[in-house]
Amino acid sequence: MNVQIRRLAVGILVLYSALFVRLNVVQVYSAGDLNAREGNNRQVLRDFDRPRGKIQTSDGTVLAFTTETGGDGFEYQRNYPTGELFAQVTGYFTLGLGSTGVERSYGDDLSGQSGAFELRALTNLFDSEGTTGDVVLSMRNDVQETARDALGDRRGSVVALDPRTGEILALWSTPSYDPNLLVDSTGSEAIRVKTLLDESPDKPLLARSFRELFAPGSTFKVVTASAGVRSGAVTMDTPSYPQLTEWTPPGTTKAIRNFDGALCGGPLDEILRVSCNTSFAEMGARTVGPDQLVETAEDFGFGSKPPIDIPGAVASEIPTDYGRPLGPFPDGEGGTVYENTAGLAQVSIGQGDARATPLQMAMVAGAIGNGGIVMEPHVVAEVRDTEGDVVREIEPAIWKRPLDQKQAAVVRTAMDGVVDDGTAEALDIEGFEVGGKTGTAQTVAGEDRSHAWIVGYAGVEGEAAEVAVAVIVEAQQGISEQTGGRVAAPIAQRVLRTALNPAPVSAPGDLPGQLGGN
């Protein structure tokens, strides 16, 4: 009998220990992932019927605030006074649908439930109103408005950031949506509206700027050039690629042609200036090779999900397997042929299976303007209490180092030339050093439509760039390298001009019925 009791006791102890370990795993180690999981509304249920802090831009525009409903049921309701302008950043906070965007990733701060605010609550036990936090974005209302207005009704995205800190200044995609349509205390109307938005072929709920992948076209030549410079095989003067109208990689009969049958070639600055397909295809496939190209792209951030502080970011893609080496190029001029050298040549000019988000390409341009360093991108600058005191600051952090300063300077000189006297002349701004790279990516083979791209940076000459930008205008008529310079560059220039000017900072006034902050 005693033996059976001991066995039972041991069994219960083992089960209890396993339960204890599992509870700690769930409550401590997995808590963050579980709270961030789509469809988990536990945090929303906890925080919905209580005051909540504001979300505002760095220049004082209030983007989200809470009011008292004064009716039956729930006492509070979230409001988004700028409508669609910041919807894909702030997200929404509703009972039936949960939360997205900043409302989700900074939900504990907004509701006063983060560690810093809970500590303050313990030291102020007599505060009957409780504590909420205000989230201040790094984004500027004036830059975001410029991005929206410059893009207009055309489908596409605009990203602007400070490459020195990773602070995002604008993050806009057309089409967007109005989060006020999803604010419904019962949840039934919000669900109906979201269903309609989900079914729309325009996908307005999808922030295309950091959640959608596109062929980067010739903007990827910045990565290819960086790989060449980093390898030591490419300098500003050597090699000088042959003047060609087309080049056929080994292993295929399909030639890579220059836009409009142009004859081009030469050293790095010249081939980037005119965006020479034949030269960059040869640079990637022969001069650089697959290992160095892939490694450089990954060091810019390809293959990794960017650590932006709002949910849903996707990793940009570059193929990593080009098959086994087959031997030297048949012309005896150097380089190794691989089983898929043809695919490598396509990727080297931003075609084939290369895919990137506009955010990723803005970070590529920003790295060139910032001495070869990619900073962690973020939309939030700081969290404040209701008295306006800073509770927490988002500190700049290095994410990737694809180039050293000397290597970045070589590519920067070449990109400056693209603006001075190349395909991106429309990006130029008097009084500033501006560099850029246009791009065109055909949407469907055989169709006369393409995505128009541009990436670039601007700042005081000789110093780290102050602003980096990426613009994509989707499915434009025509397929020409001039498409990016004609369509996307004027948009990027307007955004750069606004961002380079000091922000017109003003303290936000109280909004009607506003709670959770001054």
Topology (SSEs and partners):
Elements: H1 2-29, H2 31-36, H3 42-47, E1 55-56, E2 62-68, E3 76-79, H4 87-90, E4 93-94, E5 98-99, H5 101-105, H6 107-110, H7 115-123, E6 134-137, H8 141-151, E7 156-161, E8 168-174, H9 188-199, H10 208-211, H11 221-231, E9 241-244, E10 246-247, E11 256-257, E12 264-266, H12 268-273, H13 277-288, H14 290-300, E13 325-328, E14 336-338, H15 341-348, H16 358-369, E15 374-375, E16 380-384, E17 390-393, E18 398-400, H17 405-421, E19 433-442, E20 449-459, E21 467-477, H18 482-500, E22 514-515
Parallel strand pairs: 1-6
Antiparallel strand pairs: 1-2, 2-3, 2-22, 4-5, 6-16, 7-8, 7-21, 9-12, 10-11, 13-14, 15-18, 16-17, 19-20, 20-21
Task: Give your account of this protein's structure.
It contains 18 helices and 22 strands. The protein has 518 residues and is an alpha+beta fold. It has a domain at 217-380 and 396-500: 3-Layer(aba) Sandwich (Beta-lactamase). Strands 1, 2, 3, 6, 16, 17 and 22 form a seven-stranded mixed β-sheet that branches. A five-stranded antiparallel β-sheet has the order 8-7-21-20-19, with helices on both faces. The protein is globular, with a radius of gyration of 26 Å. Mean pLDDT is 88; it is low at 26-32.
